[in-house]
Design goal:
binds 1,4-dihydronicotinamide adenine dinucleotide, about 280 residues, 9 helices, alpha/beta, Rossmann fold
């Protein structure tokens, strides 16, 4: 098992009660870190805390909505007094919606940006206060490959994830002088409740196989592992990095032709690709 050197450090995780955030919480605890789980879902917080405490680390849950500025400020302080100086923040809380661009309602557009951008901003601003004071900290935000390019049917989500990349870079520029590193990971397709709720099985199967060099979805532990590395001292010279964790999907223009792409069908018939 990889040792990230996070033993006895305090890591706060938004969206820590499900999917990628939960995997990150478990990975941090397995490494010996004390974990604060911030999420709107109290039931899932409780389940995750049980799993975390079984690893003999301190773990506390905080039911909050990442859009709530006042609550975020209070929770950031509460985590410090409950668990100790917060070393790391992993911002994973996020939502997704789908609609054709010409039909996206303003309310839906704002709802996605509210959680995915405002939430990441507020968590970073509030948790960074003490990190800046101490001159030490690491923040990892969760973007998406949808923060690296467009994606039909996901205008609001794509806009929000591009904003996460911009926010991450700006924070890295401003807070490097305080010893606070800020990076983002951009996952591809990850098998979580969020993905299952937003994409039909057939689409997942076809698109993922068609476009991913590794030919499969990620499981959330594979995303959490990269987040742990970025939080750890192994990444002590990384800040402002936007790191795809996508099975190679954004490396170029691979298509195996399953999506009905004409050019790739031609290449298939020439034996350049195999089915
Ligand atoms: P998930 O739905 O399994 O977990 C998200 C967690 O965030 C849930 O526990 C939910 O209760 C919490 N949450 C949602 N809104 C919240 C709010 N307003 N305040 C506090 N907590 C809130 O989803 P998953 O897949 O683990 O997603 C985590 C992050 O990864 C998101 O930012 C998502 O956009 C991103 N991502 C996911 C990908 C995937 O394929 N699953 C791909 C690329 C990025």
């Amino acid at each position: 098992m990889v040792n990230y050197g996070l033993k006895d450090r305090v890591i706060a995780i938004t969206g820590g009660a499900s999917g990628i955030g939960r995997s990150a919480a478990l990975a941090a605890a397995t490494d010996g870190a004390h974990v604060a789980v911030l999420d709107v879902n109290q039931d899932n917080i409780d389940k995750t805390l049980t799993e975390l405490r079984a690893k003999n680390v301190k773990a506390e849950g905080y039911a909050l909505d990442v859009r709530d500025e006042v609550a975020m400020g209070k929770v950031a302080k509460a985590v410090e007094s409950d668990l100790g100086p917060v070393y790391g923040l992993f911002s994973s809380a996020g939502i997704s919606r789908t609609a054709p661009a010409e039909k996206v309602a303003l309310a839906d557009f704002e709802a996605v940006l509210d959680v995915n951008v405002n939430g990441v901003f507020l968590a970073a601003r509030e948790f960074a206060q003490a990190m800046i004071q101490r001159g030490r900290g690491a923040i990892v935000n969760v973007g998406s490959i949808d923060g690296l390019g467009g994606h039909p049917g996901r205008l609001h989500y794509v806009s929000s994830k591009h904003a996460v990349a911009g926010l991450t870079k700006s924070l890295a520029l401003e807070w490097g002088r305080y010893g606070v590193r800020v990076n983002a990971i951009m996952p591809g397709f990850v098998d979580t409740p969020l993905l299952r709720a937003n994409m039909p099985e057939k689409y997942i199967e076809r698109v993922v196989f068609d476009r991913t060099p590794l030919g499969r979805m990620a499981n959330s532990d594979e995303i959490a592992a990269v987040a742990m590395m970025l939080l750890s001292d192994s990444a002590s010279y990384m800040s402002g990095a936007i790191v795809p964790v996508d099975g190679g999907m954004t490396a170029g223009f691979l298509t195996r032709g399953q999506g009905g792409d004409y050019a790739s069908k031609n290449l298939l018939s020439q034996g350049v690709y195999s089915e």
